[in-house]
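Task card 7
Instruction: Convert sequence to structure tokens.
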Amino acid sequence: MAETVIPSFDTEVVKALELRVADLRSVHREWMQLGIRNETGQLYRIVGVAGGNAWLETLDVMRMLGFVNELDGSRKSTEGCDTIFFQRVDTEVTASSATC
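Output:
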């Protein structure tokens, strides 16, 4: 089994979501579970969210941090999570344009 790689953005996520450490069983007892992928695409963190308002707030925070919901629009859970986020990688625009 591969070792879990904690990404550089993890500290920012933990702070923004005001996360506390909990065992996996407690996380899965929560109403919804949100997964976060590291740079290699590995699910490295699962966040348990207690209710509807907290769920919507958590989704908003993840989007504001630049993460993309890979299960957006899906009603099916994946890897034990109701939604999974990954960090969007913005590419530089190298083409130029002009108006005619």
